[in-house]
Amino acid sequence: MEQLLFKVEDRPPALTSVLLAMQHLLAALGGIIAVPLVVGGALKLPADQVVALVNAALLGSGIVTIIQCKGVGPIGIRLPCVMGTSFAFVGAGISVGLEHGVPGILGSSLVGSLVMIIGSYFMPTIRKLFPHAVTGVVVTMIGLSLTPVAIDWAAGGFGSSHYGEPGNLAIAGFVLLLVIALVQWGKGIISASAVVIGIAVGYLVCLALGKIDFTQVHHAPVFAVPQPMHFGLSFPISGIVAMSIAFLVTIVETTGTFMALGAATQTAMPGKKLARGILCDGVGSAFAALMSSPPVSTFAQNVGVVSLTGVASRHVVALTGVMLLLAGLFPVLGALVVTIPQPVLGGAGLMMFAMIVSAGIQMLGKVEHTKRNGLIIAVSIGCGLAVTVRPELLSKLPTFVKEVFGSGITVGALVAVSLNLLLPGRPVDFAEEEEGGAIEIAREVA
């Protein structure tokens, strides 16, 4: 079993912690900023309101990340979790916003977060729905669903006129090879910092080639304090229903992310621990709504950073939360990070997300080889991939169906859980797995 470089409770030296925290920041920042930009663009908001959404998203994500990592009473899983605005809410958010504006999105999110808060109290029961075969499927689908994102980054960004140009692929390939070399042959902090070093070198190469656009940096304010209730709140019934469905789906996705994180950090994930994490997601989303930010959830891509680097310290990721908070107060810092070309992120991202796939495959390799388990694994991954690689599959279905089944992670998880419950031969006694067997899962793939 490979040893972690830094365990969950370890506190690396200050400068080392900053460097390691920066890796998580780079992995998450684009996603956090993208959601308010997409929503703002769809609603045709003026520039100053989009900036306000971005600042609030960064500040809210930073504060909730700190709480998730450090814990406040029963809130927070106390593992290296980066929290951020989630694309799981984009579809519902835009549909609500087009009719009721940003106040409708935020008010619906505030009420909808109760679904996650209440759901957290049922996590010991929900945990029993995730035996080894189901957990392995969910972890694998997280990696498989994120990999196309990295491919789009590597090619230059989905929808870009320069998509797939040889220059983009060359830069992504260079960063990928550099990260591989640093992980394989680097020692100590060099290996642990492979992602941030690879991105930094790739950035310098792009700078020398004149591929960096500093326009956003020039227009970003140096300092700005997000205002609570900046847009106000409204509570349309249709919006509350839509957001509640999105939160229900997010419980399934976040549970899978936590299971993957448990494997990466060699930590048992009993129901009570999951409950603290889900509660933080719910309370954090309510707080984010009051801060004028879209809802937040645990970022799966940062599990890839942990898997790749062996740095599982929750205190390092809490520092990432501090950096996000500062980015919300100093928008120019966030704008500077956003100048990183997508091919650079793609090279590093492909490595990180593929590590999650690897972890899932190793977990599935430890599952008992029976016809029943084979059916669960094959059908659920097949259905999850169908939605991931062909999202237009759902284009003719009602909006409600697209909201629930729009994510390959969710589809894979729901199919796996359903088959596990319906197929004959299901183990009856889950007590052992709940209390002790979970640690075996966590360690099998370490």
TrEMBL record:
Keywords: Cell membrane, Membrane, Transmembrane, Transmembrane helix, Transport. It is a multi-pass membrane protein. It is found in: Cell membrane. InterPro entries: NCS2, UacT-like, Xan_ur_permease. PROSITE patterns: XANTH_URACIL_PERMASE. The chain crosses the membrane at residues 21-43, 49-67, 79-98, 104-122, 129-151, 163-183, 190-210, 230-252, 316-338, 344-361, 373-389, 404-423. The keyword Lipoprotein does not apply. Pfam families: Xan_ur_permease. The keyword Membrane applies. Belongs to the nucleobase:cation symporter-2 (NCS2) (TC 2.A.40) family. This is Nucleobase:cation symporter-2 family protein.
